[in-house]
Amino acid sequence: MMSSYCRDAQREMPETNSRSRKTDPGKLSFLKDDIEKFDLQDLLTASAEVLGSGTFGSSYKAAVGGQPVVVKRYRHMNNVEREEFHEHMRRIGRLKHQNLLPLAAYYYRRDEKLLVTEFAENGSLASHLHGNHSLEEEGLDWHIRLKIVKGVARGLAFLYNQLPIIAPHGHLKSSNVLLDESFEPLLTDYALRPVINPEHAHMFMMAYKSPEYARLGRSSNKTDIWCFGILILEILTGKFPENYLTPGYNSDADLATWVNNMVKEKRTGEVFDKEMLGTKNSKGEMIKLLKIGLSCCEEEFERRLDIKEVIDKVEELKGDDDEDYYGSEGNAYSVRGSNQEGFSFSMDR
């Protein structure tokens, strides 16, 4: 695995002795006690499968000591001093929540870092929403999508509570939501903004693609709320947000703008993913979630929901409802940035 990386890493490893510190630069630093320990050489020489290459580096699935782990190589953290990096990794390692993918171990090298996590059985939310589906593997149904939204909301609320920083996740998007064997969502790549090189973060991280960063040159305490709103709309519509690809905020490429326009044109039923099954008795709840998503995506961040309001509204949603909650233009749901009623819905699945 990564043979060239292994050779380079070994060149930088100093000889160790009995006085070596816990954060010995030639060793992996483990943050989880319930994972079988292995050394850097085991990791770098293990057979591996490339999972993908993103804006921050490549990801690999490796089998080490009989357990599957995921290794991410980060090349854009080289502005961070060693002790600052160690301290931040330990801070992340102390975060424990059922909807966070725990950081198991890390390795510091001057121009590149390795972060190690356990393997999530069902891959990323993005692959389920945008991959090719077949009769054997259908798209996610409404109940699973709602479960994912609730889990992401809980994980995000935990980060807000535990980390006194603006945009505590900082890079929330569907490829950074993994799914375990029961489709419980696990947030990953969270809280890395403080250790990413600023010039790279400004180009690629979701926190810097928000409307307020484009307008004011700064993020807000509701920037992650905007990212969550885009994620909700992506889950409901099945559309890949161009927001993920554009450098900075572009209202013309904004998924929320498209949904908002469809709602204003009373074409709400057309926004929902046609591959989403199990919706027949859930139309009212789907519209409620669509409204929550749009409320999270207000361009003026002061008008967005705060994290407590998000949690309260999301937790109220049910998998099914028996009311014929749609089709009326008198519903108390308004489109983004407007008090005008705009929801109509007709869908039979």
Automatic annotation (TrEMBL):
Concerning PROSITE patterns, the annotation shows: PROTEIN_KINASE_DOM
Descriptive protein name: Protein kinase domain-containing protein
InterPro entries per record? Kinase-like_dom_sf, PRK1-6/SRF4-like, Prot_kinase_dom, Ser-Thr/Tyr_kinase_cat_dom
One family from Pfam that matches here is PK_Tyr_Ser-Thr
For the region Disordered, what residue ranges are annotated?
A: 1-26, 320-349
Q: Which domain of life is it from?
A: Eukaryota
Query: What Gene3D superfamilies does its record include?
Result: Phosphorylase Kinase, domain 1 (3.30.200.20), Transferase(Phosphotransferase) domain 1 (1.10.510.10)
- Where in the numbering of this chain does the Protein kinase domain appear? 45-317
Q: What is the lineage of its organism?
A: Eukaryota, Viridiplantae, Streptophyta, Embryophyta, Tracheophyta
